[in-house]
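Final report, Chapter 2: Outcomes

The project's central promise was a pipeline that accepts a single protein chain and returns its three-dimensional structure in a standardized token representation, suitable for archiving and comparison. That pipeline is now operational. To close this chapter, we reproduce one record exactly as it appears in the project archive, with the input sequence first and the structure output second.
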Amino acid sequence: MKNERETDNRTQLIYETDGMCVAFDAVVIQSENLPEGAFVILDRTAFFPGGGGQECDSGYITTPDGEDIRVTKTAIVDGQVRHYLERPVPAGTAVAGRVDAKTRYARMQNHGSEHLISGIIKRDYGYENVGFHMTDEEVVIDTGGILTDEQIRLVEERANEAVFKNIPFVISFPTPEQARNSQYRSKIDIYDNIRLVSVDGYDVCACCAPHVNSTGQLGVIKITSAMPHRGGMRLTVTAGADAYHDYVMLHDNNASIMEILSSPRRETAAFLREYAGKMNSLRSEATQLKKELAKVVTETVIDTLKTKDADIKTPEMIFTSCLDMKGLRDLVNECTKVYGGMICAFSGDDDNGYGYIFAVRAECAKEADIKGFLEGFKTACGAQGGGSDVMVQGTCRAARKDIEEYFRPVRNNA
């Protein structure tokens, strides 16, 4: 892994000492228009080229005639900070740079929260940050050991205490000797050309990314999820503006629950638990009622079938709206025990479609050719499904009258 601070020092890196600077003046000292895109190198820049888990900045460069040219991305290539543009700007041009401030600030808030949380976990529990990933909405931190729910809550509380204390983020550039004699977090052993970001009493970390001036500018820090991961914990964190937007989303969801349940704002969880208990009870009652209803339907159908003479060429149609596919299958199985012809059972309605099961006894399978019968039904009624020589099943979107119309000639010609 490389040291992400390595540059050729042709460009003054404003973002390293002033993360809040998002507007600056500069001069183009190199301009290229390559097949992969145009880029310029400036004598000074506030555009962060990415690194340390934080994405690169974008924004605009304004020419002397007032034209805004989009900076699509920035990156360190061959030790130099390249600003990729929508079109080239000649070397020697005096320009004004403008970083996308809203995005930069939100990223610094999330990144600063990671420093506090990782530093507190290291300080209080001895676990290293073994993984770090940041998006434009949240931070993911992997710890080197397991934390309990209580410990995670304490980490969050202590991080926010640091926010309320408004402690400065201090930037320093130690010599290699000073670095070797210092204690700081880093995933690699580096001592040359490093930049330390410190929050007194909480964290010292080697980092190349811009940061806010003080912890108070982080706004608020919230650990939104925590789960075991590879022998440690994976924490998802949001801060500042992103934490605010997350709170608004949760507030709106809670307001909807309050309206649905007629619940006080602080008691939605209790109301939901009560509601869930009632739903489980009703679900159990509904399951029992379905069983009893299926039994009644089955007994009624069986009594009717016992009065009929079976004809393998004459499908016996059954329609019901109260059975699911398991109940329909149970019904069909009982029917084939007492009836030697083909059973064609449907459950559903015209609005939602029908589930169907066609079945015959094993000894009648060859004469019935139930698969062949199914193919004709699928073509005529737009059905889907398949099965074996004794039972086929599937779904059908045709209306009941169309299904019955298809069966009419089949039954009449039997």
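Archive annotation: The chain has a mean pLDDT of 94.
This record, like all others produced under the grant, will remain available to the consortium after the project formally closes.
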